[in-house]
């Protein structure tokens, strides 16, 4: 028998004003654009990419993804490719995360 209590007139007016303000703000305010993370990894043979990677002390898929604006799966594959080329060395890891370091 309970249920939601009815709002007073003053509470309903306040809600309407807030909704109108949100609508006005949403249409005139700058909308933040959602950027899609890249699917194509940077060129692993590029000197700039290798230099940026060597500046980083620890390389994880997350750090590479944020640095080069990639998806995590792409960054993981990119690191595996770099390991095959000898640019980075595998340090440690588990099923979920792999840690690399730049090779000297």
Portion in strands: 5-15%
Read across the widest sheet, the strand sequence of neighbours is: 1-2
Biggest sheet layout: 2 strands, antiparallel
Question: What are the low-pLDDT stretches, counting only 5+ consecutive residues below 50?
Answer: none
CATH topological fold name of the domain at 47-102: Arc Repressor Mutant, subunit A
Mean pLDDT level = 88
Radius of gyration: 25 Å
Give the CATH class of the domain at 47-102: Mainly Alpha
How far apart, in Å, are the first and last alpha carbons?
74 Å
What CATH architecture of the domain at 47-102 do you see?
Answer: Orthogonal Bundle
Total count of strands: 2
Q: How helix-rich are the residues, as a percent range? A: 40-55%
Q: What is the succession of H and E elements?
A: HHHHEE
Class of secondary structure makeup: mainly alpha
CATH superfamily of the domain at 47-102: Winged helix-like DNA-binding domain superfamily/Winged helix DNA-binding domain
What is the 3D form?
elongated
Q: List the total number of helices.
A: 4
